[in-house]
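Work Package 3 (structural annotation) set out to generate three-dimensional models for the target panel prioritized at the project kickoff. During this period the team completed the workflow that converts sequence records into discrete structure tokens, so that structures can be stored uniformly alongside our sequence database. As a representative example, we reproduce one entry of 150 residues exactly as it appears in the project archive.
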Amino acid sequence: MAKLDEINERILQELGRDGRISNIELADRVGLSPSACLRRVQELERSGVITGYRAVMDRTKLGAGFVAYIAVGLNDHSKASQEAFERAISRAREVRECHNITGTIEYLLRVECADLPSYKLFHTDMLGALPQVNSITSYVVMGSPKDERA
């Protein structure tokens, strides 16, 4: 495992802001020589601390400006029921995230749709039609003043 000292933390912070930053610029921002910075980044990748780089997209420009978090409770708590639900959710293009959580419900979904009518269609025809689903509670996102997902 890579040692997460202050410099590695700064490297991760800078890469989190801009994964396409040049090694020279990154080295300058964290106070290292380019070769020392590159070695540290490669070690963070090799050790699995950095697992990949992604493009961050403006989902509204892709026609998915409606965002909701959905708490889903299952009617059966068996492994088979969970696996069936997860298989169905993995095929739903509207579902951007699916988390199996603790508490009074089993899953928390992050869903992106074009608008409210398309969300209603997803809610009714896809999610509501799953035999494993017992309860659905929607939380519509009105704004995201802080969002650090990559």
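The mean pLDDT is 94.
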